[in-house]
Amino acid sequence: MSLGRHSIPVRPCQADRDASHCTPVRNTATVSSSQASGTEYADAAELGIHVIPLDTPFAVGQVNTYLIEDDPLTLVDCGPNTASALTQLERQLEDRGHRLSDLEQIFITHQHLDHSGLAGILAARSGAELVTLDRLAPVLENWAGQAGRSDDDALALMLAHGVEAPVAEALRAVATIIRGYGGAARVDRTVNDGEEIVFTGRRLEVQYRPGHSPSDTVLYDRANRVALLGDHLLAKVSSNALVDSPLPLPSDPARSAAATSDSTTPGPPPRRPEPLLAYRDSLMRTRLLEIDLGLGGHGPPVRDHRPLITGRLSAQERRAEHFLTLLADGPRSAHELAVLRWGRVAITQAFLTLSEVLGHLGLLLADGRVIEDASGAIVRFHAAD
Ligand SMILES: [Zn+2]
Q1: pTM value?
Q2: What CATH architecture does domain 19-315 belong to?
Q3: Which of 97, 133, 208, 300 could pair with 193 in a Cys bridge, judged by C-beta atoms 3.0 to 4.6 Å apart?
Q4: What are the DSSP E strand ranges found in 231-309?
């Protein structure tokens, strides 16, 4: 989607680490996933699930798509809208004895363009049925309008929280270019949270897990204790909870109309979503599941999800404490906090770092430990007495 809001998981950012840990970095574990697939994914292959890693132009490196050899023959996630990803996918399908036209079903785990970008092209070329969570469908079907609205919201958010106008506007312009790695797709069938996708040899429960994006969906095979996780939980990188526009729910005519509009006129800033609070709730729900094998959107499989989730939640709490200490000398804007924490990276990755700060301030606001002052031109936060 837009700059800083396509999937760019970063290494775990802890309060006691330097800025480089929150810089989007190429993850060696992710890059090695294709070479490692023979061994790390052996148990997945035994269940008929085959990892197909595809290159992306983003710092995260490759994205994992998954071929489920069952009836219907299904691809989970698609890769970005690039010729190289399409070629790599076709070649790896051939390696397994399939052609693109053999695909019968495509499922998209979330709206980020490294996962959804090729969906429209693949569905059109293969004739496969494109299936998504109900609330993801309007995003894919009205890609340009929704992406434009999302970028406008991001611009308004950056300006409201103290990012200098030239920086915010430059990032908005780059976002328009990056949007080309996504694309519109017609969704054939939608599924709801809790519904099952039924195959001849398995049943996958649809579990809505917002936070990293507003549309994250986990597919859970309860019988085999396997979960296809998208970017909800990754073994080697800590997924960001990124601020993004609320989804245009199919049942909400106002939002659907906004999504179908190609207008890019910035409106008043909407009420800020709290993605980190949503993400923490989602992680706690996933922690309750019985999972032996978690198949993520980047990097190697998740083998031990409970301690991994507990560690991620603790790291978020430590980081929130760190931001609270940065408010000891008086009120600050979220962007000032990002600059204090990450220096130059807070300029070049202004939206990503702003999302990180606002997410953690959201934890402190929810606990009544920080107060938000939106009375001025720039929103400021101060520690509660
Ligand atoms: Zn991703």
Answers
A1: 0.85
A2: 4-Layer Sandwich (3.60)
A3: 208
A4: 293-296
Q: 40 C-alpha to center of ligand 1: Å?
A: 19
Measured in angstroms, how far is the CA atom of residue 146 from the centroid of ligand 1? 19
Q: What residues have their beta carbon closer than 5 A to ion ligand 1?
A: 7, 114, 231, 297
Mean pLDDT over each residue of the chain, to the nearest integer = 86
CA 12 – ligand 1 centroid, Å: 15
Strand order in the sheet with 217-221: 196-198, 203-208, 217-221, 226-230, 293-296
Give the span between the Cα atoms of 195 and 87, in whole angstroms.
Answer: 33
**Under 8 Å between Cβ of 354 and 338:** yes
**Distance between Cα 115 and ligand 1 center (Å):** 6
Detail the DSSP E strand segments found in the chain. Answer: 49-54, 63-68, 74-76, 105-107, 129-133, 189-191, 196-198, 203-208, 217-221, 226-230, 293-296, 370-373, 380-383
Centre of ligand 1 from the C-alpha of residue 113, in Å: 8
The three-class DSSP label of residue 53 is strand
Closest CA to 75 of 129, 34, 21: 129
Q: What residue segments make up the domains of the chain, in order of their start?
A: 19-315
User: Which residue, 135, 136, 217, 129, is CA-closest to 184?
Assistant: 136
Distance (angstroms) between ligand 1 centre and the Cα of 95 equals: 24
Instruction: Give the Å distance between the CA of 239 and the centre of ligand 1.
Output: 9
Q: What distance in angstroms lies between residue 51's CA and the mean position of ligand 1's atoms?
A: 14
